[in-house]
Amino acid sequence: MSIAVELREVSRHFGEVRAVNRVSLAIEDGEFFSMLGPSGSGKTTCLRLIGGFDLPTDGRIFLHGEDASDRPPYERDVNTVFQDYALFPHLSVIDNVAYGLRMKGIGRQARRREAEAALKQVALGGLGDRHPGQLSGGQRQRVALARALVNRPRVLLLDEPLGALDLKLREQMQIELKGLQRRLGITFVYVTHDQGEALSMSDRVAVFNHGRVEQVDRPRELYVRPRTTFVAGFVGTANVLIGEVARRITGAERPVSIRPERITFGPPGAGQLGVAGKVVDVQFHGPTSRFEIDVDGVHLAVTMANRDADTDVGRPKPGDAIELSWPPEAMVELRDSEEGDRAEQGKLATPATIDERS
Amino acid sequence: MTESGGAPAMGRRLHRRRAGDAVSTFFYRRRRLYLWLLLAPPLLWFGVVFAGALFALVWQSTYTFNDFAMQVTPDLTLANYRALFAEANLDIVIRTVVMAASVTIASALIGFPIAYYMARYTRGAARGLFYVGVMLPMWASYIVKAYAWTMILSKGGIIYWVVDRIGLRGALDGLLTLPYVGGSSLSTSNLGRFLVFTYAWLPFMILPMNAAIERVPANLLQASADLGARPWQTFRTVLLPLAFPGVVAGSIFTFSLTLGDYIIPQLVGPPGLYIGTMVNLQQGSVGNLPMAAAFTAVPILIISIYLGIARRLGAFDAL
Question: Chain A closest CA to B84's CA: distance in Å?
């Protein structure tokens, strides 16, 4: 596998703010690579640095082995699908799609033919004569995709491309995007703040926090073995236990993460760990139900599948005293995300994150 | 504030009716009436002062002027419009239109970079400074500025002084020997008149262009570059088409202001009437109001044709 995009110690400072802080990444050719993080974590700035819309304060960027750090966007072999699509309002759909070919000096007939083909590829055949203003959000999204793909870039950058679409359409587009990427074999660099989207579509995910990359891994690894308190809290739901709480409940010195679905009700079996608590709240989520359990003033989240349960009869109710247990391998030891990040993390992590020290 | 104390107080405040409430409720239920009440004064103003005056003007342009009696009689005729095509009058029209076009093109060329910089690169105080800088010349009396320019451009003026100092006097004199452009000095040349016109109308070009460029989203320019367009291509295929309504709006100002002006042609440049000075002459010293009215119809016609062409070219498609 060759490397499509490489960032070496890349930083981008805006005055005092370190939007991107010494990020190093190697994205492989043909990979679906996601950059995941909350807003302000530096993921979009990173994408803009790869696209050439912004230049790094420090560090180098390589595209297919060539140093592209100082090249303008029109000299980079990458194309971008912008967050709000950035379609040209004065051009018809077909002219929008053919724009890149026109800039390359390809003849009218040839570029029209290729643009038609690209529109068919995104299931928009026959809409070429419309103007962007006459299309729905989902259709505009597809036009933006076709406009980028028609140039046959080796790397496609996508900046929260599905952010403006409603849930159903977003799920459908996720499947289509993934299919398209697999079919074309193009490297996708995909920016999103939606961890579900990142997990379901990507080959690998980089988790951004405060301008730094906290972890780069395959989705399952990221979920099962988060390395930092931030990743554990941001990717999926986790009971992140820190400091004194961690020591009391789990006996561990370092912060630990326990996924809510790994905890079961009932006394611990042989070799298992357990605590006693009281049910505070029960939330119905369809396929699962979520229980908030108070353990000596600390809330733990527990999820149970609703596969075999048509009613809540026999399930714990708010006020019930209950025992929790989990196998030792359900606990993942974490590195503390940087001290300076603590305040922010408290807000962004799931409600199940516990931090007695703050 | 406690829950129990705060809530009822809030409730009382919400329910207390004030004097204006009845009126606003009345209009809330009668939106159309409200709209008409708002629109009536400006519509009346437009109807009477603009459209009415325009109609009176066109109507009077068909009256008859008796050369011997020096009197206007309400006998309808097209003689005034025929007279426009007399060679002397046609010269006036052509002279004015060529100047208006030159001033418009120059203003657009000078104004666009300034408008672009203001819209794209300035923020806060810097932007305010630019606005003041562009509009400041409009705060001073326009006649005073025109007179000032006659001094600036005269042989003893600062431009000649600077040109002498840097040893380019020969080049300037050479330039002034050119036909149409030149004259005995800058202040009596068409070049000088052109400079003053461009100076006077430039803000009217910059402001609408600036507004139009501001409305072009930055990510469209980025998308263009992303798709391989070099800066010049992005300018030609994205920025200019999208900002063109602003350029057209600005050019209508510079064009029609030049077509109607009667001060600058009198103060700066060679002798020879402009549409504005001709209208001034006809209605003032000659008293031939119908002919003056016929002359004012020319700019109206020219601007209409210009707008028609701009529309045909797609200048307003992006609006």
Answer: 41
- Complete domains list, chain A, with CATH: 3-224 (3.40.50.300), 229-348 (2.40.50.100)
User: Does residue B254 lie within any of the structural domains?
Assistant: yes
Query: In chain B, what residues touch A82 (CB-CB under 8 Å)?
Result: 219, 222-223
Indicate the residue type of A107. G
Reported as type and span, the H/E element at residue B170 is helix B169-176
- For chain B, the domain total comes to 2
φ and ψ at residue A7, rounded to 5 degrees: -110, 125
Query: How distant is the Cα of A137 from the closest Cα of chain B, in angstroms?
Result: 17
**Cα(A3)–Cα(A222) distance, integer angstroms:** 22
Nearest CB to A88; choose among B225, B230, B238: B238
- A310's CB contacts (< 8 A; 6+ apart) are none
pLDDT in tens, chain B (319 residues): 444 444 444 555 566 667 777 888 888 888 889 899 999 999 999 999 999 999 999 999 999 888 888 888 888 888 899 999 999 999 999 999 999 999 999 999 999 999 999 999 998 999 999 999 999 888 888 899 999 999 999 998 999 999 999 999 999 999 999 888 888 889 999 999 999 999 999 999 999 999 999 999 999 999 999 999 999 999 999 999 999 889 998 999 999 999 999 999 999 999 889 999 999 999 888 889 999 999 999 998 998 998 888 888 767 765 5
B222 CB within 8 Å of a chain A CB: yes
> Hey, is the C-beta of B89 within 8 angstroms of any chain A C-beta?
no
Contacts of B224 in chain A (CB under 8 A): 88, 99, 103
Answer yes or no: do B125 and B244 share one domain: yes
Q: Does B318 contact A90 at a Cβ distance shorter than 8 Å?
A: yes
ipTM reported for the complex surpasses 0.90: no
Q: Is B22 on the interface with A (CB under 8 A)?
A: no
Contact between B238 and B255 (Cβ < 8 Å): no
**Residue A331 to residue A327: CA distance in whole angstroms:** 8
B48 belongs to a structural domain = no
- This prediction's pTM: 0.81
